[in-house]
Amino acid sequence: MISRFRFKRLVLLILIIIFVAGCSTNVNPSKESPKELQKLKVMLDWYPNAVHSFLYVAKEKGYFKEQGIDVEFVMPAETNDPLRLVAARKIDLALTYQPEIISAIDKDIPVISIASIVNHPLNVLLVPQNSLITSPKDLEGKTIGYPSIPMNEALVHTMIKHDGGDPQKIKMVDVGWDLMPALSTKKVDAISGGFLNHEEILLNKEGFQVKEFYPTNFGVPDYSELMLVTSQDEWKEKLDLIQKFWKAAQRGQQEVRKNPKASLEILMKQQRKEFPLDPEVETQSLQKLLPLMEVQGHEFGWQSKEQWEKVQQWLYDYHLINSKHPVESMFVSIVK
Known about the structure:
Layout: H1 4-24, E1 38-43, H2 53-60, H3 63-66, E2 69-74, H4 81-87, E3 93-96, H5 98-106, E4 111-118, E5 123-128, E6 143-146, H6 150-162, E7 171-174, H7 179-184, E8 190-195, H8 199-205, E9 210-213, E10 226-231, H9 232-237, H10 239-258, H11 260-268, H12 279-292, H13 305-317
Parallel strand pairs: 1-2, 1-3, 6-7, 6-8
Antiparallel strand pairs: 3-10, 4-10, 5-8, 5-9
Helix pairs in contact: 2-10, 2-11, 5-13, 10-11, 11-12
């Protein structure tokens, strides 16, 4: 039999073990368990390229996680997917174009812009470098290829008219997105819809030298090429989360400005067989983009009420929207 003394010692030993075990499960009780990250799905406007560097840098460096966000970037299957899916709340945020946002709102699609990413046009009118076309008015009697987007028609007509030419004397041909081969094989005399940070760079690299006519030099309002949008309901319900997202995105852009080469190395990790990235092209692209992504005296993402008013008026004048709407309903100021 176990003696009373030995029994007491055994009980004491068991109590000590229980006490120590209890302490070990409560070491440093001041530290809270990590909070679960909130998920946010963001749709790009196209496949990953230089303009998206700030987003991938922010993700790679953990800026989103520091804000408690788990971000997923997805690509659109169709060009209208960003606005369509964000309005349907299938995604939280999307990248798209200012004129498209105004057009969507005119159709009662409940979206709202929350930040400007590229504050100026990227869409330029391109002609061969050795062409006798020296300004838009010289396009009278010429053929212009474009991807059958009505805004491109308005853009070309505005530029030619502003330059003293007659837009009715040009022929616009739908070449889809085969803009570069249409120009390089001389099927058309000029193209509209090519971007200065992509098609222009690629054409020059491939040995087909081109020159550009920039829209705002010929009467087109200075619209924002790329913006961040969400749905009206998403903005109301996830205001704090979206603000945190943009705070992290701003840090990403600061890092891109500070270290563009290292930032592009992060971007290059996103390439796939379906969309290979050329380091030389993306480097030139980022060099062109960075000045267009800044507004003197304002934070990255700032939007101008005056810009919204001018762009809406232009779209209305060219019958691309049926009516004008209060611009205050089109955007919110997430930064100063």
